[in-house]
Design brief:
This protein is of the alpha+beta class and 178 residues long. Helix content is 47%, strand content 20%. The strands form 2 sheets. Strands 3, 4, 5 and 6 form a 4-stranded antiparallel β-sheet that branches. The longest helix has 47 residues.
Length: 178
């Protein structure tokens, strides 16, 4: 029984060089060799990391805007409630009673509330919008807007995002039995 042996490593290297398949000669000649794909995995990983950072920064920015909007909404609700408490009286027409509320009164009391609460320091460019006033005879509507600066994406959005919310409060009359 005869064992067949493969060519020795020196003999194989010589055969490869003759056929142009020697890895060292391929790299020197500029032809693609087995090591030409080594850097492509690194590029894919770097690209994936960049995409993940972009997604994460977008999520942080959107969450920040949402949370600031919620804070502004709470302020609008408080301002509407405060303005609704400023009823000047009740008038009657037949059997119906109506509260004496005016849009001017709502605007002034809301401005006073915003100054007293110090909300101007909490929000950038806080303003009381034109839609504020009285709806019907017993509902106060306050519309506030402010500019929100998202973190991280301030390079993309240097002016920030304008957020507008409205809050309503209703005045109800009740009789207290003695």
């Amino acid at each position: 029984m005869r064992l067949l042996r493969g060519p020795s490593s020196q003999q194989a290297k010589g055969d490869w060089a003759q056929q142009g398949k020697d890895p060292s000669s391929q790299q020197a000649s500029g032809q693609p060799g087995p090591s030409s794909e080594e850097g492509s995995v690194l590029l894919l990983i770097i690209g994936l990391c960049l995409v993940l950072l972009l997604v994460a920064s977008t999520v942080v920015a959107v969450s920040s805007i949402y949370l600031e909007r919620q804070r502004l909404q709470a302020l609008a609700d408080q301002a509407a409630w405060s303005s609704a408490q400023q009823v000047r009286g009740i008038s009657t027409q037949g059997q119906q009673a109506y509260f004496l509320l005016s849009s001017e009164q709502v605007y002034q009391s809301t401005q006073a509330f915003l100054v007293e609460s110090g909300a101007g320091g909490d929000f950038q460019e806080l303003s009381l919008e034109a839609g504020s006033g009285v709806l019907g005879s017993n509902t106060v509507k306050v519309v506030l807007s402010a500019r929100v600066q998202p973190p991280i994406l301030s390079v993309v959005l240097p002016d920030g995002v304008r957020v507008q919310v409205s809050g309503q409060a209703r005045v109800r009359a009740s009789q207290v039995e003695p």
